[in-house]
Amino acid sequence: MVREIYVSGTAPRLTTDLTALEAVASTAMTPTARGYVVGDAGVGDTGRANREAFARHRLVPRVLRGAARRDTTVTLFGQRLAVPVLLAPTAAQTVVHPDGEPATTRAAADVGVPFVLSTGSSHSMEDVAAESGPQPRWFQLYWPADRAVAASLVHRAERSGYTAIVLTVDAPTFGYRPTDLDQGYLPFLHRAGIANFISDPVFRAALPPDADDRTVVQHWARVFANPTLTWDDLPWLRTVTSLPILLKGILHPDDARHALDLGVADGIIVSNHGGRQLDGTVAALDVLPAVRAAVGPDVPVLFDSGVRTGSDILKALALGADAILYGRPFLYGLALDGQRGVTHVLRCLLADLDLAMALTGCPTIGDITPDLLA
After folding, report:
1. CATH number for 111
2. pLDDT, position 1
3. Active-site residue flag, 273
4. Which domain covers residue 276, as residue numbers?
5. pLDDT per position as a tens digit, 37-47
6. Is 223 part of any domain?
7. How many domains does the chain have?
8. Within a domain: residue 157?
9. What is the pLDDT of residues 275-284, one digit of tens each?
10. What's phi and psi for 364, nearest 5 deg?
11. Of 57, 219, 273, 344, catalytic
């Protein structure tokens, strides 16, 4: 991509500064969309801490190590991924662009990046799967209050070719987000992000045949959140599916160990929800090494929260992650230019990662080790 831009001598449609996308995209979104996508919990301390953690960790490049060709492939759960990057599950994407998740999925296919589809998708998991390419796709589960609906969602994901279940455990309820509260706006109550529910036969069976939009949304509100969920519930999920299960939203190493001891989790995703759930928490990057140490070298550990650039990915991998989930920046690309915008953002990210590997003397992902950091 870098060579392509220089050789053509033509400026790209969107900025290549991945940290500048938020400001540009904010002007392209409605106030409610901007509040929902950009807004963090509380006063935003957690979101700022995530970025500050990346700034504190400094790379110490090694030179003359023959990094003319870089191999970015990684293997997770027996599947070989072209890059150590997956698109994070982000809900209600039609809020920023009418094409929503299918456009994002097609862009991921263009670049060869796997994606994780949110339970809160604005298009059904079947429709999104029909738009996806050969790269792996995972399904993120917000465990609903109705177990029968939860089982139905998981079974539909299996039938649609999703190859892992990502159970988010840090969102038993919505966080305190002033940018949404001040506008009295939640996209799900306007039918954005509930397609997987209204297309689900078990969910629909609890509704009268002539249910209007208001009745459907009210039923969704009763079913979606599940604050009663405990560790004791998790073994049931293992009886529902044989797919790998990753727990997303782990920050404490004891929680990571307990997940493994229960025999439920096949992988851990270190995350504080990008700062969108609880304000004042520790930066996810700061606890990544402790979680890696707690689960040992053989358990897949993924990471999100605050990743913006290729160098950020390098730092997360050096601190123990096997791969990262990339969230809000691709939404900014979607808001600015639909599918092309997402493709542009991902191409920038992967070009930055490739050059960062070259400039730190890391021809393979395996060469990215803790001694790369000061």
Report:
1. 3.20.20.70
2. 82
3. yes
4. 12-363
5. 999 999 999 99
6. yes
7. 1
8. yes
9. 999 999 999 9
10. -135, 165
11. 273
